[in-house]
Design a protein that fits this description.
Helices cover 41% and strands 21% of the residues. The chain is of the alpha/beta class. The protein has one domain: Rossmann fold (3-Layer(aba) Sandwich). Strands 2-1-3-4 form a 4-stranded parallel beta sheet.
């Protein structure tokens, strides 16, 4: 059975453990890259990642973009929403349907 993980700074992700999700608190980009690789090899189908961590792991995330799993979904952290999660969804929708049907060219 596939699992769901949450990665990011401890303060942003500790509450997800109460929902039964596996949490991976990481402090550095190097820890994050290693943990993402480990999660991908360990049957995690979805990895929720804070936008702040994802900003420093763009190359590592791109490796999994065209793969079936894990799906890397960006979430805001305690520091706030950077808009990266929405931008990722917009890009994915544009890629899937060929045009911007969510924002109709607006940001």
């Amino acid at each position: 059975m596939y699992k769901v993980a949450v990665m990011g700074d401890y303060d942003s992700i500790y509450g997800f453990a109460a929902l039964g999700l596996t949490t991976f608190p990481v402090e550095t980009a190097e820890e994050g890259a290693a943990q993402l690789k480990k999660a991908a090899a360990d049957d995690f189908a979805v990895v929720y990642m804070t936008e702040a961590l994802a900003a420093s792991l763009q190359e590592e995330i791109e490796v999994y973009r065209d793969q079936l799993r894990p799906a890397v979904i960006l979430i805001p952290g305690v520091s706030g929403n950077t808009g990266a999660g929405i931008a990722q969804v917009k890009k994915s929708v544009e890629q899937a349907v060929g045009s911007d049907i969510i924002f109709n060219g607006e940001n």
